[in-house]
Specification:
alpha+beta; elongated; single chain
């Protein structure tokens, strides 16, 4: 599902105009981004938690040349699936 499809479905189900749902979605993404930039996790009950994790430095090798170099540590966004969503996904495999 693409962003536009998602926003159209939310607008249809909520009865709100599509421009209002687009503005709300944009504000939600901005809020999540702002909190993550402050290293504050954002938890949505029944869905999961967005957080920032530090990826360790690691050694990598170019397979063509055999050259090795160190990739420095960095902060990356991560998502941890909540138990409700995890259970729904399990039901797809049953």
């Amino acid at each position: 599902m693409k962003n536009k499809d998602l926003l159209d479905e939310v607008a249809q189900r909520s009865g709100l105009p599509s421009d209002v749902t687009a503005a709300l979605a944009d504000r939600l993404i901005t809020l999540i981004t702002n909190h993550l930039s402050l290293d504050e996790p954002v938890s949505i009950q029944g869905f999961g938690t967005f957080e920032v994790k530090k990826r360790k430095e690691r050694l990598t090798v170019n397979p063509t040349t055999g050259a090795k170099w160190l990739i420095p540590p960095k902060w990356v966004p991560a998502f941890k699936v909540g138990p409700t969503l995890k259970e729904k996904i399990k039901q797809l495999n049953a």
